[in-house]
């Protein structure tokens, strides 16, 4: 016959207190993980036949710089967008053709997780945002 084991009030209280502490720590951990703005991805593609010597993209208070981007290649960065930011792009091809644009695309939609900047043959930068 199985015997019933009695649990003392002190042991029961300690177990309940341990569960309460564990639940509190878990809630704080989940809140701190979800508190930030989700990160977005910035993708730069060189769609020209020339090598890009230098490229600098400014967005959300960050500067992303890259040198020697070969034709047909992509570079990716992650950033935390806010609703007022646009992309400021400066750069140059190997033949000293400037790549410059003031305000390309906007980060005003927090659902957009990817922002694509494509550099064309003539130095123009186009923006797209696939969902």
Automatic annotation (TrEMBL):
Residues 1-29 form the signal peptide. This is Uncharacterized protein. Keywords: Signal.
């Amino acid at each position: 016959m199985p015997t019933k084991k009695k649990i003392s009030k002190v042991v029961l209280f300690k177990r309940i207190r341990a569960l309460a502490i564990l639940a509190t720590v878990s809630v704080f951990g989940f809140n701190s993980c979800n508190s930030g703005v989700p990160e977005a991805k910035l993708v730069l593609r060189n769609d020209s036949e020339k090598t890009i010597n230098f490229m600098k993209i400014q967005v959300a208070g960050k500067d992303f710089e890259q040198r020697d981007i070969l034709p047909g290649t992509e570079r990716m960065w992650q950033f935390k967008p806010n609703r007022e930011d646009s992309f400021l792009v400066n750069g140059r091809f190997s033949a000293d053709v400037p790549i410059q644009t003031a305000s390309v695309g906007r980060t005003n939609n927090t659902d957009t997780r990817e922002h694509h900047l494509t550099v064309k043959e003539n130095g123009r930068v186009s923006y797209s945002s696939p969902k």
